[in-house]
Amino acid sequence: MATRRRSGPAPDVDAVVVGAGHNGLVAANLLADRGWSVLVLEAADHPGGAVHSDDSLRPGFVTDWYSSFYPLAAASPTLQKLELEQWGLTWKHAPAVLAHVFPDGRCALLDRDRDVTAASLETFGAGDGDSWLRVVAAYERIAEPFLESALSPFPPVRAATRLFRTMGTADAMRFARFAMSPVRRFGKENFRGEGATMLFAGNALHTDLPPESAGSAIYGWLLCMLGQTVGFPVPAGGSRGIIDALVARLTAHGGSLRFGAQVTSVDVAEGQARGVRLADGERITAGAVLADVAAPTLYTDLVGARHLPDRLNDDLRAFDWDHSTLKLNWALSGPVPWTAPEARRAGTVHLGVDLDGLSRYATDLTTGRMPEQPFALFGQMTTSDASRSPEGTESAWSYTHLPGSVEAGPDEIARQVERVEAAIEAQAPGFGALVLDRAVQSPADLNAADANLVHGALGGGTAAIHQELFFRPVPGLGRADTVVDGLYLASASAHPGGGVHGTPGANAAAAALRRAGHAGPVHRAVVDAAHRRIYR
């Protein structure tokens, strides 16, 4: 093992990881694999962060309290290398991937059988089935180098070179245009009917990108293509199956975890991270600190403005969060009685709006208005994994976004809950009569349960292009290295952003290993020189 050379006594551990979310656990695993002594510190009484499930809503009904479906995890090169299936992770699939139910009752279906998807989309526009198959074939041609490019440290020189060689100059130029396109425009150029466009646009709004936003096409396209090729899988027994596997793997490789251990500051001396301090006053020294913490919290609260360049402090004040989230969770006495038969087979259901309604909803969020017609995402977890609730019942949830610029009070939350449930009832008459138990998670509830979900934002910051690549989390290098030597950003606030794929954690681990290697001092000198130019 190579550890970073430093003066003074040996640290307590080679690395402290702040936060036992999936990114923190990925980072810890990769360092432990290299023989590092690793300690993960988690403020909560359990690991996982926003990947957590239990049966506290109703005994026998497993609820995913945050994320549920994991196409990015299934496709992630990082998670594939960890071989979590050997540590207890088992994937399950619903009969169909996703259904978008239109207000008029029509339904567009995304099925893992591409011919079934194509047949569904053909009913919306002549030729749309063939157009879908062409889009899928084009994706499959570039899938491996594209995913490697998207889910690797920035800039992804080798992967991007492979991607360019695979596509060639002509296709690469058109792909770059597509990557900057709004999803509404992409749909108009490639499909006649609304069905395919709504699949892409609805998936784009799994982030905070409206149909008219630059870059929304590639987000919607990626999730749709993953849905077509790997599905929207769920862990058997609940979302914590991912976390249980990561923890089991970590401890088997010598890593350790402590819960109820709230880190209140990163110790910084002479521009270097020396360790962390806990709420009870305990100090833990470390050769490296990797923070699965939202960027503004890390820099402002744990490091402190006095250790940062003035220009970086200014940039942090402009950090742009994604939309707030309102989540409803139900234990149901029976399957959801959707009038659209396709929706009964789908793990994920989108509903409430058509394309223009989606644009109005997004505009409401941007302008600080509570949407009167919300776009809702609905998860049918027992349909996806029969172990989630007793036979003949359903464990289900729905979420919608709220404007992050408005602090919603109890009355406003109650109205939005009514609107979401009314939208469900309109497409599934009798839904309300099936409810055995319900739990509502407001943005404040989400933030209270996980400090990284600031204002109930799930993505670690907006997915808009002005805060991606080398603009994430602020204008800089787009890498895990921070202005503090030995401190690495390992959360969704880092490139490439939100979603359960483990890349921010992997990037942070790679940066720490690079700094500890023989070329580490040279690498750090280059990073410091770049930071001086960026933040002068």
Describe the structure.
There is one protein chain. With 536 residues, the protein is α/β, with parallel strands linked by helices. It is built from 19 helices and 18 strands. The strands form four sheets. Strands 1, 2, 9, 10, 11, 12 and 18 form a seven-stranded mixed beta sheet that branches. The chain has a seven-stranded mixed beta sheet with strand order 7-6-14-15-16-13-17, sandwiched between helices. Strands 3-4 form a two-stranded antiparallel sheet. The two termini are 36 Å apart. Mean pLDDT is 95; it is low at 1-5.
Give the total of beta strands.
Answer: 18
Structural class comes to alpha/beta
Helix content percent band: 40-55%
Shape: globular
Low-confidence stretches: 1-5
Radius of gyration: 23 Å
Euclidean distance between termini CA atoms: 36 Å
In DSSP terms (H or I, runs of 4 or more residues), the helix count works out at 19
Instruction: Report the average pLDDT across residues.
Output: 95
Oligomer designation: single chain
Strand proportion: 15-25%
Largest sheet: 7 strands, mixed
